[in-house]
Amino acid sequence: MSAATPCTANCTSSTSRSPTPTEPPQSTADGDEDFASPPAPRSRFAWCITGSGHYLEESLALAARLPQLDLFLSSAAEEVLGIYHWTLPVLRERFPPGLRIVRDKTASAVPVGRLYTDVYHTVVIAPATSNTVAKCAYGISDTLPTNMLAQAGKLGIPGLVFACDTEPVVVTKAPHDWVTLRPRRIELDNVERLRQLDFCQVVASPAELETALAERLHALSLEWTSPAS
Ligand SMILES: Cc1cc2nc3c(=O)[nH]c(=O)nc-3n(C[C@H](O)[C@H](O)[C@H](O)COP(=O)(O)O)c2cc1C
Protein backbone atom coordinates (compact mmCIF):
# COMPACT_ATOMS: atom_id res chain seq x y z
CA MET A 1 0.00 0.00 0.00
CA SER A 2 1.50 3.35 -0.91
CA ALA A 3 1.01 6.64 0.87
CA ALA A 4 -1.06 7.71 -2.13
CA THR A 5 -3.56 4.91 -1.62
CA PRO A 6 -6.92 6.56 -1.10
CA CYS A 7 -7.46 4.88 2.21
CA THR A 8 -8.61 6.64 5.35
CA ALA A 9 -9.59 5.48 8.81
CA ASN A 10 -12.95 4.66 7.32
CA CYS A 11 -11.46 1.97 5.14
CA THR A 12 -10.73 -0.03 8.28
CA SER A 13 -14.35 -0.03 9.21
CA SER A 14 -17.73 0.73 7.84
CA THR A 15 -18.99 1.62 11.30
CA SER A 16 -17.03 4.78 12.15
CA ARG A 17 -19.14 7.26 14.03
CA SER A 18 -18.73 10.62 15.61
CA PRO A 19 -16.75 11.34 18.63
CA THR A 20 -15.88 12.02 22.13
CA PRO A 21 -12.66 10.83 23.74
CA THR A 22 -14.59 9.12 26.52
CA GLU A 23 -16.88 7.21 24.20
CA PRO A 24 -16.15 3.48 24.14
CA PRO A 25 -14.53 2.14 20.99
CA GLN A 26 -16.81 0.97 18.19
CA SER A 27 -16.55 -2.65 17.15
CA THR A 28 -16.18 -3.25 13.44
CA ALA A 29 -17.61 -6.22 11.60
CA ASP A 30 -14.38 -8.22 11.93
CA GLY A 31 -14.01 -7.52 15.63
CA ASP A 32 -11.56 -4.61 15.41
CA GLU A 33 -12.16 -1.48 17.39
CA ASP A 34 -12.32 1.79 15.55
CA PHE A 35 -12.43 5.36 16.82
CA ALA A 36 -15.81 6.60 17.84
CA SER A 37 -14.60 9.93 16.49
CA PRO A 38 -11.38 11.28 14.97
CA PRO A 39 -8.73 11.71 17.68
CA ALA A 40 -6.44 14.76 17.80
CA PRO A 41 -3.57 14.70 15.28
CA ARG A 42 -0.44 12.83 16.36
CA SER A 43 -2.00 12.06 19.75
CA ARG A 44 -1.58 8.29 20.09
CA PHE A 45 0.97 5.51 20.33
CA ALA A 46 0.51 2.62 17.88
CA TRP A 47 1.92 -0.36 19.79
CA CYS A 48 2.37 -3.54 17.74
CA ILE A 49 2.68 -6.92 19.43
CA THR A 50 4.15 -9.93 17.62
CA GLY A 51 4.12 -13.62 18.49
CA SER A 52 6.92 -13.50 21.04
CA GLY A 53 6.60 -15.03 24.49
CA HIS A 54 10.01 -13.57 25.36
CA TYR A 55 9.59 -10.23 27.14
CA LEU A 56 5.85 -10.27 26.47
CA GLU A 57 4.93 -9.46 30.08
CA GLU A 58 7.58 -6.74 30.38
CA SER A 59 6.47 -5.12 27.11
CA LEU A 60 2.80 -5.18 28.09
CA ALA A 61 3.61 -3.69 31.49
CA LEU A 62 5.26 -0.70 29.82
CA ALA A 63 2.55 -0.35 27.17
CA ALA A 64 -0.13 -0.23 29.86
CA ARG A 65 1.55 2.82 31.42
CA LEU A 66 1.46 4.93 28.26
CA PRO A 67 -1.18 7.54 27.56
CA GLN A 68 -3.45 7.17 24.52
CA LEU A 69 -2.42 3.89 23.02
CA ASP A 70 -3.79 1.41 20.50
CA LEU A 71 -2.64 -2.19 20.15
CA PHE A 72 -1.98 -3.73 16.73
CA LEU A 73 -1.61 -7.51 16.87
CA SER A 74 -0.02 -9.86 14.37
CA SER A 75 -1.96 -13.11 13.88
CA ALA A 76 0.78 -14.94 15.79
CA ALA A 77 0.59 -12.37 18.57
CA GLU A 78 -3.07 -13.09 19.06
CA GLU A 79 -2.32 -16.80 19.43
CA VAL A 80 0.69 -16.35 21.70
CA LEU A 81 -1.08 -13.78 23.88
CA GLY A 82 -3.82 -16.35 24.45
CA ILE A 83 -1.29 -19.03 25.37
CA TYR A 84 0.12 -16.69 28.04
CA HIS A 85 -3.45 -15.97 29.24
CA TRP A 86 -3.60 -12.49 27.73
CA THR A 87 -6.90 -12.89 25.93
CA LEU A 88 -8.47 -9.84 24.31
CA PRO A 89 -10.87 -9.31 27.26
CA VAL A 90 -7.92 -9.49 29.67
CA LEU A 91 -6.03 -6.91 27.60
CA ARG A 92 -9.03 -4.58 27.72
CA GLU A 93 -9.29 -5.07 31.47
CA ARG A 94 -5.60 -4.39 32.18
CA PHE A 95 -5.18 -1.34 29.94
CA PRO A 96 -6.53 2.13 30.65
CA PRO A 97 -9.88 3.01 29.07
CA GLY A 98 -9.76 4.21 25.48
CA LEU A 99 -7.63 1.32 24.24
CA ARG A 100 -8.30 0.12 20.69
CA ILE A 101 -7.27 -3.39 19.69
CA VAL A 102 -6.60 -3.88 16.00
CA ARG A 103 -6.28 -7.42 14.72
CA ASP A 104 -4.46 -8.74 11.67
CA LYS A 105 -7.42 -9.90 9.62
CA THR A 106 -6.57 -8.65 6.12
CA ALA A 107 -3.92 -9.70 3.59
CA SER A 108 -3.14 -6.09 2.73
CA ALA A 109 -2.94 -4.74 6.29
CA VAL A 110 -5.96 -2.49 5.78
CA PRO A 111 -5.73 -0.95 9.29
CA VAL A 112 -2.42 0.64 8.30
CA GLY A 113 -4.62 3.27 6.66
CA ARG A 114 -5.03 4.65 10.18
CA LEU A 115 -1.46 5.94 9.94
CA TYR A 116 -2.43 8.16 7.00
CA THR A 117 -4.96 9.99 9.15
CA ASP A 118 -2.08 11.41 11.21
CA VAL A 119 -3.39 9.99 14.48
CA TYR A 120 -0.15 8.33 15.61
CA HIS A 121 3.05 10.04 16.72
CA THR A 122 5.03 6.82 17.36
CA VAL A 123 4.95 3.21 16.18
CA VAL A 124 6.35 0.66 18.63
CA ILE A 125 6.89 -3.05 18.02
CA ALA A 126 7.41 -4.78 21.35
CA PRO A 127 8.17 -7.54 21.75
CA ALA A 128 9.43 -8.20 18.21
CA THR A 129 9.95 -11.81 17.13
CA SER A 130 13.00 -12.86 15.12
CA ASN A 131 10.58 -13.26 12.24
CA THR A 132 9.36 -9.67 12.43
CA VAL A 133 12.88 -8.31 12.96
CA ALA A 134 14.07 -10.18 9.85
CA LYS A 135 11.17 -8.91 7.75
CA CYS A 136 11.55 -5.31 8.90
CA ALA A 137 15.32 -5.41 8.38
CA TYR A 138 14.84 -6.48 4.75
CA GLY A 139 11.91 -4.22 3.98
CA ILE A 140 9.33 -7.00 3.92
CA SER A 141 5.88 -5.98 5.06
CA ASP A 142 3.29 -8.74 5.04
CA THR A 143 1.82 -8.57 8.53
CA LEU A 144 0.17 -5.76 10.45
CA PRO A 145 3.25 -4.92 12.58
CA THR A 146 5.70 -5.08 9.63
CA ASN A 147 3.37 -2.91 7.55
CA MET A 148 2.95 -0.44 10.40
CA LEU A 149 6.71 0.02 10.72
CA ALA A 150 7.28 0.25 6.97
CA GLN A 151 4.55 2.81 6.43
CA ALA A 152 5.58 4.76 9.54
CA GLY A 153 9.08 5.01 8.06
CA LYS A 154 7.69 6.26 4.75
CA LEU A 155 5.64 8.86 6.61
CA GLY A 156 8.50 9.97 8.84
CA ILE A 157 6.80 8.71 12.01
CA PRO A 158 9.40 7.50 14.54
CA GLY A 159 9.51 3.73 15.05
CA LEU A 160 10.82 1.85 18.05
CA VAL A 161 11.50 -1.90 17.90
CA PHE A 162 12.28 -4.11 20.88
CA ALA A 163 14.29 -6.94 19.33
CA CYS A 164 14.42 -9.77 21.82
CA ASP A 165 17.01 -12.11 20.29
CA THR A 166 19.99 -9.86 20.77
CA GLU A 167 22.27 -11.86 23.05
CA PRO A 168 24.25 -15.05 22.32
CA VAL A 169 22.27 -16.80 25.07
CA VAL A 170 18.63 -16.00 25.79
CA VAL A 171 16.73 -17.48 28.72
CA THR A 172 13.03 -17.25 27.97
CA LYS A 173 9.80 -18.27 29.63
CA ALA A 174 8.04 -20.87 27.50
CA PRO A 175 4.37 -21.44 28.40
CA HIS A 176 5.28 -24.11 30.96
CA ASP A 177 8.98 -23.74 31.66
CA TRP A 178 12.13 -21.66 31.28
CA VAL A 179 14.12 -22.42 28.14
CA THR A 180 17.66 -21.48 27.12
CA LEU A 181 18.02 -20.46 23.48
CA ARG A 182 21.08 -19.52 21.45
CA PRO A 183 20.10 -17.14 18.66
CA ARG A 184 21.95 -17.93 15.45
CA ARG A 185 24.27 -15.58 13.62
CA ILE A 186 21.45 -14.74 11.20
CA GLU A 187 19.16 -13.51 14.00
CA LEU A 188 21.92 -11.36 15.50
CA ASP A 189 22.87 -10.01 12.05
CA ASN A 190 19.24 -9.12 11.33
CA VAL A 191 19.10 -7.00 14.49
CA GLU A 192 22.22 -5.15 13.36
CA ARG A 193 20.70 -4.64 9.92
CA LEU A 194 17.50 -3.33 11.48
CA ARG A 195 19.55 -0.68 13.29
CA GLN A 196 20.41 0.81 9.86
CA LEU A 197 16.76 1.50 9.01
CA ASP A 198 15.57 5.10 8.76
CA PHE A 199 13.08 6.27 11.40
CA CYS A 200 13.72 3.15 13.45
CA GLN A 201 15.29 2.94 16.88
CA VAL A 202 16.17 -0.55 18.07
CA VAL A 203 16.29 -1.48 21.75
CA ALA A 204 17.43 -4.75 23.22
CA SER A 205 16.16 -4.97 26.81
CA PRO A 206 13.14 -3.91 28.85
CA ALA A 207 15.32 -1.26 30.53
CA GLU A 208 16.34 0.17 27.14
CA LEU A 209 12.72 0.10 26.02
CA GLU A 210 11.62 2.00 29.12
CA THR A 211 14.36 4.61 28.61
CA ALA A 212 13.47 5.06 24.94
CA LEU A 213 9.78 5.46 25.80
CA ALA A 214 10.59 7.96 28.55
CA GLU A 215 12.62 9.99 26.05
CA ARG A 216 9.79 9.86 23.54
CA LEU A 217 7.27 10.97 26.17
CA HIS A 218 9.56 13.82 27.16
CA ALA A 219 9.94 14.91 23.51
CA LEU A 220 6.15 14.92 23.18
CA SER A 221 5.61 16.73 26.51
CA LEU A 222 3.71 13.68 27.78
CA GLU A 223 4.00 11.59 30.93
CA TRP A 224 3.57 7.99 32.01
CA THR A 225 0.02 7.40 33.19
CA SER A 226 1.18 5.45 36.25
CA PRO A 227 4.52 4.88 37.99
CA ALA A 228 6.50 1.68 37.51
CA SER A 229 5.49 -0.98 40.04
C1 LIG B 1 4.18 -19.88 22.87
C2 LIG B 1 5.04 -19.31 21.78
C3 LIG B 1 6.05 -18.44 22.11
C4 LIG B 1 6.87 -17.91 21.11
N1 LIG B 1 7.88 -17.07 21.46
C5 LIG B 1 8.71 -16.59 20.52
C6 LIG B 1 9.78 -15.73 20.90
O1 LIG B 1 10.00 -15.41 22.07
N2 LIG B 1 10.57 -15.24 19.91
C7 LIG B 1 10.37 -15.53 18.60
O2 LIG B 1 11.11 -15.03 17.76
N3 LIG B 1 9.34 -16.35 18.20
C8 LIG B 1 8.51 -16.88 19.14
N4 LIG B 1 7.48 -17.71 18.77
C9 LIG B 1 7.31 -18.04 17.34
C10 LIG B 1 6.56 -16.94 16.60
O3 LIG B 1 5.27 -16.71 17.15
C11 LIG B 1 6.43 -17.30 15.09
O4 LIG B 1 7.74 -17.23 14.50
C12 LIG B 1 5.48 -16.43 14.33
O5 LIG B 1 5.47 -16.84 12.97
C13 LIG B 1 5.87 -14.97 14.40
O6 LIG B 1 4.97 -14.18 13.65
P1 LIG B 1 4.97 -12.59 13.77
O7 LIG B 1 6.41 -12.16 13.73
O8 LIG B 1 4.24 -12.14 12.56
O9 LIG B 1 4.26 -12.21 15.01
C14 LIG B 1 6.65 -18.25 19.75
C15 LIG B 1 5.60 -19.13 19.45
C16 LIG B 1 4.83 -19.67 20.44
C17 LIG B 1 3.72 -20.62 20.08
TrEMBL record:
Offer one Pfam family short name for this entry.
Flavoprotein
Stretches for region Disordered: 1-38
Q: Where is the composition biased (Polar residues)?
A: 1-11
Taxonomic superkingdom: Bacteria
Q: Where is the composition biased (Low complexity)?
A: 12-28
Instruction: Check the record and name the InterPro entries matching this protein.
Output: Flavin_trans-like (IPR036551), Flavoprotein (IPR003382)
What sequence ranges are listed for the domain Flavoprotein?
Answer: 44-171
Q: Which Gene Ontology molecular function entries are recorded, alphabetically? A: catalytic activity
Query: What is the official name of this protein in its record?
Result: Putative flavoprotein
Q: Give the source species.
A: Rubrivivax gelatinosus (strain NBRC 100245 / IL144)
